[in-house]
Every structure is written in C-alpha cells, then in structure tokens.
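Hi P.,

Sorry for the delay on this. The queue was packed all week, but I finally got your sequence through. Input first:
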Amino acid sequence: MKRIIIDLRDRKDYLNHHITNSINIPYDKLLYNYNVLLNKEDNYYFYCTNGVQSKKMATFLKAIGYNTHIMS
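Then the structure:
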C-alpha cells in the first residue's frame, strides 16, 4: 500500500511551489480519469490552495471505495 500526495492545483501553481514528492493531477483531470489514474489499494492525500477541492475529491473517492485523506 503506497502513500501518495496529489496536488490538485493547476500545473503553473504546482511548478511555482509544491510539496516534495507530491504529484500534480489537476482537479478536473482527476475527476474525469480517477478510475485510470488511481487504484483502491493505495492511500491518497489531497492538497489544493484552500482545501475546497481536496475535500470534494476526498469525499467523492472515499464514497466509492478509495482510501483518501485531506492534507491541511
């Protein structure tokens, strides 16, 4: 089981500053491709600018069986 930090911000913001070892998957891209990009065995930690998108994504994915967490 991996622990993966996902930065949901756009690429420009990610390149400007991001958490070390995080990966950038913008919110909309992940929302429409989660079944290809994620697997249910891993733990996902979401990060965004103000926490709103992180909370939405974590809540949505948790409801369908993914292991999700919000970074604050």
